[in-house]
Amino acid sequence: MGFGGISIWQLVIVLGIIILLFGTKKLRNLGSDVGGAVKGFKKAMNEESAKEENNAQKTISKDDAEFDAADKAAETSDKKTESK
């Protein structure tokens, strides 16, 4: 048994009929079009995930900067209190 109850010979016959109907040139063009679409999709997904990582790093950096600023402000107020 092959895929889902379809034998390998049945798949070969279906492939032969498809080649007779469409021809190898159209199938080759279709294959390259589908391959290009998949490649473009993967590229877009990688760019999107890179943007998300970059945004996450910016957010973390911003949070760290805010924490550092608050920490410095607290130190400054402590120094003013100690000097009085």
TrEMBL record:
The Tat system comprises two distinct complexes: a TatABC complex, containing multiple copies of TatA, TatB and TatC subunits, and a separate TatA complex, containing only TatA subunits. Substrates initially bind to the TatABC complex, which probably triggers association of the separate TatA complex to form the active translocon. One of its GO terms (cellular component) is TAT protein transport complex. One of its GO terms (biological process) is protein transport by the Tat complex. It comes from the Bacteria. InterPro entries: TatA/B/E, TatA/E. The keyword Membrane applies. This is Sec-independent protein translocase protein TatA. Gene3D superfamilies: 1.20.5.3310. GO terms for molecular function: protein transmembrane transporter activity. The chain crosses the membrane at residues 6-23. Keywords: Cell membrane, Membrane, Protein transport, Translocation, Transmembrane, Transmembrane helix, Transport. It comes from Marinobacterium lacunae. NCBIfam families: PRK02958.1, tatAE. It is found in: Cell membrane. The keyword Cell division does not apply. It is a single-pass membrane protein. Part of the twin-arginine translocation (Tat) system that transports large folded proteins containing a characteristic twin-arginine motif in their signal peptide across membranes. TatA could form the protein-conducting channel of the Tat system. Residues 46-84 are annotated as: Disordered. Its main location: membrane. Belongs to the TatA/E family.
